[in-house]
Write a structure and sequence with these properties.
- It is elongated, with a radius of gyration of 21 Å.
- It is of the alpha+beta class.
- The longest helix has 10 residues.
- It starts with 6 loop residues before the first strand and ends in an 11-residue tail after the last helix.
- The protein has a six-stranded mixed beta sheet. A two-stranded antiparallel sheet has the order 1-8.
C-alpha cells in the first residue's frame, strides 16, 4: 500500500461526516522502516467531519498483528483495537507540532493521514508482548522449561497444573 492512498481530498466534500476505509498490512509499515511485525492485517476506518471552519478526524483500527513473544520468542497473533482523534484547522502555515491539532495552510485541498495511522497503530501495541500460552500455562516451550529449571528451588512451581 502506498502512502498516497491515504490522501483525502477534502476540498470537494460537503459539510458533514465522510468515511474512508483502509486495509493495512506489512507493506504499509515498510514505508516507515518499521519491521517489528511478522505479519499484520488491520482495518482502519477514518471519519472526517467537515465543518465550516475546522475538520475533525477520527481514526479507528482493529485487526491482528503477528509478533514474537518477549518471553519465549514464539510467534503469536496479537489482537489490536485502537483509536485517535485529530482536530484540523487552517492557518498561515503547516504545523503538526501538537499531536491532537493539525494546522493546514489556507488553500490546502487535501490531507495525507498516513502518519497519523502509523502513529496510532504503533502506539496501540502493548509495550510487553506476551504469548497467551505463557500467561495461562498452556504453551509448551523449551525456553520456558529451561527458565523454570533455572529458578531457585523456593520459587519453582509446576506451571502445567
Amino acid at each position: 500500500m502506498e502512502l498516497k492512498d491515504f490522501n483525502i481530498s477534502f476540498v470537494g466534500l460537503k459539510q458533514g461526516k465522510h468515511q474512508f476505509l483502509y486495509e493495512v498490512d506489512n507493506t504499509f509499515f515498510e514505508n516507515y522502516g518499521f519491521e517489528d511485525f511478522n505479519s499484520s492485517q488491520l482495518n482502519v476506518e477514518a471519519t472526517l467531519d467537515k465543518k465550516s471552519t475546522i475538520m475533525e478526524l477520527h481514526l479507528e483500527a482493529s485487526g491482528s498483528i503477528n509478533v514474537n513473544c518477549d518471553v519465549t520468542n514464539e510467534p503469536f497473533d496479537l489482537d489490536i483495537e485502537t483509536q485517535m482523534d485529530v482536530i484540523i484547522k487552517f492557518g498561515a502555515e503547516y504545523n503538526d507540532d501538537n499531536e491532537e491539532l493539525l494546522i493546514l495552510p489556507h488553500g490546502a485541498y487535501e490531507l495525507n493521514i498516513s502518519q497519523y495511522v502509523y502513529e496510532m497503530l504503533v502506539l496501540g501495541i502493548p509495550l510487553k508482548r506476551v504469548h497467551p500460552g505463557v500467561e495461562d500455562g498452556s504453551l509448551d516451550s523449551e525456553l520456558l522449561d529451561k527458565l523454570e529449571e533455572l529458578q531457585p528451588k523456593n520459587l519453582r512451581h509446576n506451571r502445567r497444573q
